[in-house]
């Protein structure tokens, strides 16, 4: 594909020959079908995570969702999993619940794509909802790992792409690939959408974008990435032709993606009669930190920094503002580093668009780690160093951070204020 060349077969052969002598176990691993390698990596990582979850469940006390020492499937369906279960059972309220005159937490914050799929799995398998949710999430997780490999192979060498899959599967928030959360389905759809974008299969994006827009709320971010892609292709059309058919398709899909990103808020507005039903519902989750407020784009991170530094830590509020500014600057610089540039302009457009989206609307708290999952293409950058010591050490660090995330965010300790 113009602009996104994959390594040539000759390069692949040289890499394999250099890394592993013929006949060794490593050589056989390198020469096995890519999909088999990805499946084995995913299964192994899920076994490790399952052990972690079972250990944590064995010491879990009574909580708002389960009794003490819950079984795996019940433990996997707590937190937002219960909200998705509520959507499955009761749908969405036509009247918004109020607390002190403000919209309270309710099901409109949870889009219908994932619970609809879980319902289908439950109907086909006759499994209880928590079991069906784990089956659906795990299947989407495997699909995401397979597509992620193919996505990176458009830009990176086989061993780098495969090691990136290892990092993808053992990442600190990778337990979500087997929990009753929509992230697994969304990451699969997002990886597929990015893959189609890099291949310039614009019309194929429409069904993917449609389902994605009703799975997780980042359709506007993807529309922005598409818009940047269109502008870039037009700017470089002298060296990389941008034929009329591609112009029509890419612009049409960009507009469609933007409309799809607004579809769920519009649905909530129509059903409830409140034009701000969706945003007011989302804002109710941050009310426990800063009270009920209106959404003012590009202020939540600064509001959050003020709360964390001045209230939670007892430090001057200006330190929070400085920290946010530094994080923004570091992220911008990161996007222009040589290693990130190797991912190609389309993945960088997505990283920029999603970063801008988070900055505009997200209030930083314990869910921040989960909300960072869509920047998974950066794992390709972490996978580039070829040192075996580095690669083994990074996997160990990721597994340790995974355990830490489960302890802090998934395990429930009384009136827990660290939701995943």
Our Rg estimate from Cα atoms comes to 22 Å
The tally of helices reads: 21
Q: How much is the average pLDDT?
A: 93
Order of helices and strands: HHHHHEEHHHHHHHHHHHHHHHH
Write down the domain tally: 1
Give the percentage of residues in beta strands: under 5%
The general outline is globular
Structural class of the secondary elements?
A: mainly alpha
**How many β-strands, per DSSP?**
2
Transmembrane segments: 34-57, 129-149, 156-173, 179-197, 248-271, 308-335, 347-363, 392-413
InterPro entries: PIG-V/Gpi18
GO molecular function, one term: GPI mannosyltransferase activity
Membrane topology: Multi-pass membrane protein
What does this structure look like?
The protein is mostly helical and 420 residues long. It has one domain. The protein is 66% helix and 1% strand. A two-stranded antiparallel sheet has the order 1-2. Strand 1 (98-99) and strand 2 (102-103) form a beta hairpin. Helix 6 crosses helix 7 (129-153), helix 11 packs antiparallel against helix 12 and helix 15 packs across helix 16. The protein is globular and about 60 Å long. Residues 1-19 have low confidence and may be disordered. This is Integral membrane protein. GO terms for molecular function: alpha-1,6-mannosyltransferase activity; GPI mannosyltransferase activity.
In short:
This protein has helices at 9-19, 25-31, 34-58, 72-76, 80-90, 113-125, 129-153, 158-170, 183-199, 205-213, 219-235, 244-272, 277-283, 287-290, 300-312, 317-335, 338-341, 345-361, 368-371, 379-382, 388-410, and strands at 98-99, 102-103. The protein is mainly alpha-helical and 420 residues long.
